[in-house]
From TrEMBL:
Protein family (similarity comment): Belongs to the thiolase-like superfamily. Beta-ketoacyl-ACP synthases family.
Keyword Magnesium: no
Record flagged with keyword Ion transport: no
NCBIfam families per the UniProt record, alphabetical: fabF, PRK07314.1
Pathway connected to this protein: Lipid metabolism; fatty acid biosynthesis
Alphabetic keyword roster: Acyltransferase, Fatty acid biosynthesis, Fatty acid metabolism, Lipid biosynthesis, Lipid metabolism, Transferase
Record protein name field: 3-oxoacyl-[acyl-carrier-protein] synthase 2
Positions annotated as active site in the UniProt record: 164
Organism of origin: Marispirochaeta aestuarii
Tree of life domain: Bacteria
Job of this protein: Involved in the type II fatty acid elongation cycle. Catalyzes the elongation of a wide range of acyl-ACP by the addition of two carbons from malonyl-ACP to an acyl acceptor. Can efficiently catalyze the conversion of palmitoleoyl-ACP (cis-hexadec-9-enoyl-ACP) to cis-vaccenoyl-ACP (cis-octadec-11-enoyl-ACP), an essential step in the thermal regulation of fatty acid composition.
């Protein structure tokens, strides 16, 4: 059976920089940081007091207030970004056969703020103090479920949970669903909202978060810099509409890019630490290239996982060298987490969008705060200032706790 081609026809986002695609891209081009002091809760007793919050978010712009009250924050983000993506694609007005439209989203953690409120109410008031909608609000699958319910999409609908690789793996699952003829259209990407006392405390106990830059929040996320000390928690959603090529052409849909390849692997090594050889992420990248039928030299830009942790950045650098060989030293690489912060389960969706926009606009985003490169991170990370470049094919990779590795490749659409 001939494999069906898949293209991107819509995109939407809410994140720490902006609540739409255009303003997000302008902030990325300018090298702006969305990281600021945490305002969602009192951080008096916390060693980390900064994050990439979605600021001034008004869910009523995308859903009625009654509907919003039934949703956890991560689901609200998914609904907002999905509404944008569907409008962008033109599918908000009708999708053809709704039984052939799916929703496959990634999420790492679910509704932490709902869980925390429920536990407090249980402790203070007993079982009857727990709100009836607690479980339907907090579980991860309610993100895609709510999108499907709102738009009447009856195709595959589920949530991929592979920690920080969740959204990338969701995009890969959506790609394959369309390729094999299971779906014609899939709303995909990811969402997260874990900037809560429990979320921040949990990652602090793992010594994973930055604690050195509380007084200078915009400097806190500094991938590949020797002075980095941990990642910065972000939140938001990055949602894409993937569509079978002929389905898109028949309705005259805008085509941003073709989804060329997907690779997935597991370190099978440790719950939180990656395999020090870098072989797991390298394998994922090689598999994505193989799936796309491309050579390493054909990738013009890589949007790296680039978390700004002492462990990730040199290991990812090693993995890129293993996967790309000599081309690793010629290929521009950047971490947009330096600006958006780390959106956990939503990271891959956001970074897929930024990779596509880089190709569409001929501009490589910078890695900001890269002032003193780590000696073990010796590739071209586009430090501090973005640059113009013609890009025909781009890659985005993400790594997650548990050893999950996901990689996607996008290329310019050609008939």
């Amino acid at each position: 059976m001939e494999r069906r081609r898949v293209v991107v026809t819509g995109m939407g986002t809410v994140n720490a920089l902006a609540h739409d695609i255009e303003n997000t891209w302008q902030a990325i081009k300018a090298g702006k940081s969305g990281i600021a002091p945490i305002s969602l809760f009192d951080t008096t007793d916390f060693a980390c007091t900064v994050a990439g919050e979605v600021k001034n978010f008004d869910p009523s712009l995308w859903m009625d207030k009654k509907e919003a009250r039934k949703l956890a924050r991560f689901s609200q983000f998914a609904m907002a970004a999905a509404a944008q993506a569907l409008e962008d694609s033109g599918l908000d007005k009708g999708c053809g056969d709704p039984e052939r439209v799916g929703v496959i989203l990634g999420n790492g953690i679910g509704g932490y703020e709902v869980t925390e409120e429920g536990v407090r109410n249980l402790a203070e008031r007993g079982p009857k103090g727990v709100a009836p909608m607690t479980i339907p609000k907090l579980i991860s699958n309610e993100g895609p479920a709510n999108v499907a319910i709102k738009y009447g999409f009856y195709g595959p609908c589920y949530c991929v949970v592979t920690a920080c690789a969740s959204a990338t793996d969701a995009i890969g699952a959506a790609l394959n669903s369309i390729r094999i003829g299971q779906s014609d259209v899939v709303v995909t990407g990811g969402m997260e909202a874990a900037i809560t006392p429990f979320g921040i405390a949990g990652f602090l106990r793992l010594t994973a978060l930055s604690t050195k830059y509380n007084d200078t929040p915009t400097a806190a996320s500094r991938p590949f810099d020797r002075d980095r000390d941990g990642f910065v928690m972000g939140e938001g959603a990055g949602i894409l509409v993937l569509e079978e090529l002929e389905h898109a052409l028949k309705r005259g849909a805008p085509i941003y890019a073709e989804v060329a390849g997907y690779g997935i692997s597991c370190d099978a090594f440790h719950l939180t630490s990656p395999d020090a050889t870098g072989e797991g992420p390298a394998r994922s990248m090689r598999l994505a290239l193989q799936d796309a039928g491309m050579e390493p030299s054909q990738i013009d830009y890589l949007n790296a996982h680039g978390t700004s942790t002492p462990t990730n950045d040199p290991l990812e650098t090693m993995a890129i060298k293993k996967a790309f060989g000599d081309h690793a030293y010629k290929m521009p690489i950047s971490s947009t987490k330096s600006m958006t912060a780390h959106m956990i389960g939503g990271a891959g969706g956001m970074e897929a969008i930024l990779s596509i926009l880089a190709m569409k606009n001929g501009f490589i985003p910078p890695t900001i705060n890269l002032e003193n490169p780590d000696e073990a991170c010796d590739l071209d990370y586009v430090p501090n200032t973005g640059r113009k470049a013609e890009l025909k094919a781009v890659m985005s990779d993400n790594l997650g706790f548990g050893g999950h590795n996901g990689t996607v490749i996008f290329r310019k659409y050609e008939e």
